[in-house]
Specification:
This protein is α+β, with helices and mostly antiparallel strands. A hairpin with a 2-residue loop joins strand 5 and strand 6. The longest helix has 18 residues.
Length: 180
């Protein structure tokens, strides 16, 4: 066993009221790849989040979509509200992620066989950070990937995290995990 160490869960994010739609627009603009990113937001979505940590997680997802998607293909970023839940999705077309990799992809230091063989550099921490940030906000991260529909990563989080969610995520990050 080994200890999972992931900085975003070692300390709960400081939450601030914000309009996530506006923050997401600014992040996409700052990435400098607006010509390859389609952003769709269902109006202003206000809630309480650790906006800096959340935007870093989304940057990881968008950067991966640009890096691993079909060359020159557009990346879709969608923000919508479903009741008291916010859904942030990042979609790209390209080779699908194998099912066995989808089960392991959010674990630290995990990279798909294809990403390693491609020669693209990485530590395998980006998606572990995405998952940790989602959990620190009382949510979860997921992936769907098929040949027919491409790859979509989704963060599902409550508008306001339930009390104790950030501490529970931090506690889980320190639990021993088996590598088998």
């Amino acid at each position: 066993t080994w200890l999972r160490v992931c900085a975003p869960t070692s300390m709960p994010p400081a939450r601030h009221a914000c309009d996530l739609s506006a923050a997401l627009r600014r992040m996409v603009q700052a990435l400098g790849a607006r010509d390859r990113i389609d952003l769709e937001a269902d109006g202003p979505i206000r809630g309480e989040w650790g906006t800096g940590a959340l935007l870093r997680a989304l940057q990881n997802l968008v950067a991966n979509a640009l890096k691993y998607g079909s060359p020159g293909a557009r990346v879709g970023v969608r923000l919508r509200r479903d009741g008291d839940t916010v859904l942030l999705s990042v979609h790209n077309d390209g080779a699908p992620i194998r099912e066995e990799d989808q089960r392991e992809i959010f674990r630290p230091f995990r990279r798909t066989k294809e990403s390693v063989e491609s020669g693209r550099r990485g530590w395998g921490l980006g998606l572990a950070i995405v998952q940790a940030v989602a959990e620190a906000h009382g949510g979860r991260a997921s992936v769907e990937s098929t040949e027919a529909s491409g790859t979509t990563f989704t963060l599902a989080m409550p508008l306001r995290a339930p009390e104790g969610a950030q501490h529970a995520a931090a506690d889980r990050s320190l639990q021993p995990r088996s590598t088998s």
